[in-house]
Structure formats: structure tokens, C-alpha cells
Amino acid sequence: MPLELHIVTPEKKIFSDLVDNVYLPGADGEMGILPQHAGLVTALKPGELRYAYHGTTQTLAIGSGFAEVTQTKVIVLTDSALGEAEIDAEHVEAAIKRAHDKLATIDHNVDHEEVAHLQGIIAKATSDLHFKRKYSR
């Protein structure tokens, strides 16, 4: 019995079809989802999403978001979902540097929201870069 998998970003539906399993970067670590999994809603952190589709493992670098899991369906709502070919390592490295440079110039005691925003950018970009390096051929 397969699972329905739906991966959605604010811009578009990335994927919607039946799969054998799904592995998500949950807020508390990687979670494996098989058919008949207990229902849950979980936060997602930037990382690698994998799923078995027609006998092959498909991978995406995703950003933060949420996943809803039922016994027959997984719905992933994320701010981004990119394949390896869509990630430009030089651009990502530059984004990490800009965020680190800006982080070094702000008052961490006053600009809590800006610090959190920059840390989020660094976490997502670092995750994307790791994914790119892992799957580059």
C-alpha cells in the first residue's frame, strides 16, 4: 500500500504522487514514514527529504516548514524545495558569508529578530550547500 506524497512551496506544487516511503528532516531529527504511520504534525528544519518513487530514491533539499502525516498521506509545506542541479554552490557560499558578516555587525542584545532571521538564513544555506556537495557528480 503506497503513500500519497504532496510537497508544496509558496510558489508551486513540487511533487504529488504515490510513493513507498518518505524520510523527512524533522525538528527533532530525521523521521521515516511508511504506510499506516501514526498521524502527526511536525515542524521541519532545513535538510534532506528523500522518498522512494518507482524503484528509485528521489532527494530534495528543503527549507523549514511543516509536515502532516496520516496513515495514507504525507503533506509537506516548506518554504523551498530544490534538487541538486538547482543549487548554485557559489551563490549559496556568498549568502552564508553575507549573513555572517551582517551578524557580526548587529547588536545581539537588541536585534533579536534580525539575529534569528540571519541564523535561519545560515542554517538553510548551509544545509543546501551540504546537499549540493553530497549529490554533485
* SSE arrangement, N to C: EEEEEEEEEEHH
Structural classification: alpha+beta
Categorize the overall geometry: globular
CATH topology of the largest domain: ATP Synthase, domain 1
Write down the overall mean pLDDT. 94
Range of strand content? 35-45%
Give me the Rg, rounded: 16 Å
Explain what this protein looks like in three dimensions.
This protein has 137 residues and is α+β, with helices and mostly antiparallel strands. It folds into 2 domains: 3-82, ATP Synthase, domain 1; 88-135. Helices cover 30% and strands 40% of the residues. The protein has helices at 89-105, 112-135, and strands at 3-8, 13-19, 22-26, 29-33, 40-44, 47-53, 56-62, 65-69, 73-78, 81-82. The strands form 2 sheets. The chain has a 5-stranded mixed beta sheet, with no helix packed on it. A hairpin with a 3-residue loop joins strand 8 and strand 9 (73-78). Helix 1 runs antiparallel to helix 2.
